[in-house]
Design goal:
With about 350 residues, the protein is of the alpha+beta class. The chain is about 40% helix and about 20% strand. The protein contains 9 helices and 12 strands. The longest helix has 23 residues, at about 275-295. The termini are far apart. The model is unreliable at about 135-140 and about 330-355 (pLDDT under 50).
């Protein structure tokens, strides 16, 4: 059975003016559950204000339907333990998926200084907590919904939605649709897109990127402010286009050229191939091999140069196709061509090492 006696807990923060980030108090027991206080010396989304928040400890261990209604207030003490100031008492419902409430603008930092609340730059805080009501833990299931900024969301979605609105408080100020079920659908679409874009960039397929672009457009047209999400999607798309720095794109082009060389060798054996054009094609392939060799020596492959190589392969294929259609020419025009050989890239690397 819950212990509903009020609990007071006092803790100190030395050198407050030097603190910048979040400060968490030690835990204390009230209502048979552990609690702690989060202190934001420079404000919680409100600059230059001391913000205080009461939190349930170890929220991951709470059952899904856990609820506690509790009243609380914060007080400032001097070094003699005398109460200098107290915030109004608040009564809030703490849930398994929403485990913190507080005063985001409890005190201005200037007021703390002016009123002499910081003796020797030390802040002494006291929190009083009383559990008023223990709500039936079986009353909530995973399908229960909560209202967050006008959107109905599942309990399981609550942490992500709260984080979303904390980081982007104006994300839905221009949302146009009023129907609640439609709003829920769009919120689920947004949460799903955020989850997708948290994947590593190389794991995206072209289809997934295209679908993500379409979803982003739909969400933006509905009124969500998603410039930050568009930027992230653009970065993923650019990284995808740049190709893979592990050389897999170069390997793909390497394989294309090998196959093309084999086909060219077959065509050289045919009397229908014009010797002069064959020499030109051979030179083109040779130039292409030199370019690719240079690319392989680079620590990271340039996506633009890889695209140029791809275009050269395409042009070479077109040229080769034209040559296949030409009429036959004397075999003796091919003399001096038969001795030409196309080295594969294993030979190229061997030769290069020898030359070096």
């Amino acid at each position: 059975m819950d212990d509903k006696k009020p609990t007071s807990f006092t803790f100190e923060i030395d050198n407050l003016s030097e603190k910048k980030g979040l400060i968490s108090s030690p835990t204390f027991l009230s209502g048979n559950y552990e609690w702690f206080v989060n202190v934001y010396p420079n404000g919680y989304h409100i600059d230059e204000r001391l913000s205080l928040h009461l939190q349930v400890a170890n929220p991951e261990s709470l059952p899904l339907g856990w609820k506690k209604q509790a009243s609380y207030s914060f007080a400032l003490l001097n070094q003699s333990g005398k109460e200098l100031y107290r915030t109004p008492e608040s009564c809030k419902l703490f849930r398994a998926q929403f485990t913190g409430w507080g005063s985001p603008k409890a005190f201005t930092l200037q007021k703390l200084q002016d009123m002499g609340y910081l003796e020797n730059n030390k802040l002494i805080l006291k929190v009083d907590v009383k559990v008023i009501e223990a709500v039936d833990e079986g009353a909530v299931t995973g399908k229960d919904m909560l209202d967050v900024r006008g959107f109905k969301v599942l309990y399981s979605q609550l942490p992500l939605v709260n984080k979303l609105f904390r980081k982007h408080p104006d994300i839905a100020v221009n949302f146009k649709l009023k129907n609640q079920s439609v709003k829920t659908t769009y919120m689920n679409l947004l949460l799903g897109l955020i989850e997708k874009l948290d994947k590593p960039s190389p794991s995206f397929t072209e289809i997934e990127l295209s679908n993500a672009q379409s979803e982003l457009i739909d969400l933006t047209e509905a009124g969500f402010e998603l410039d930050w999400l568009k930027k992230k999607l653009d970065e993923i798309s650019l990284e995808k286009k740049r190709g893979l720095t592990d050389g897999s794109r170069v390997q793909e082009i390497d394989e294309l050229i090998k196959n093309l060389n084999l086909e060219l060798e077959k065509e050289k054996e045919k009397s229908a191939t014009c010797a002069a054009e064959v020499l030109l094609l051979e030179q083109t392939v040779s130039d292409l091999r030199v370019e690719l060799r240079k690319e392989k020596k680079k620590s990271a492959t340039s996506a633009t140069e890889v695209l140029l190589l791809e275009q050269m392969v395409l042009d070479l294929r077109v040229e080769l196709s034209k040559e296949k259609d030409k009429s036959a020419t004397p075999n003796d025009l091919l003399e001096g061509v038969a001795s030409w050989e196309v080295l594969d890239y294993a030979d190229l690397y061997t030769n290069e090492k020898g030359e070096e």
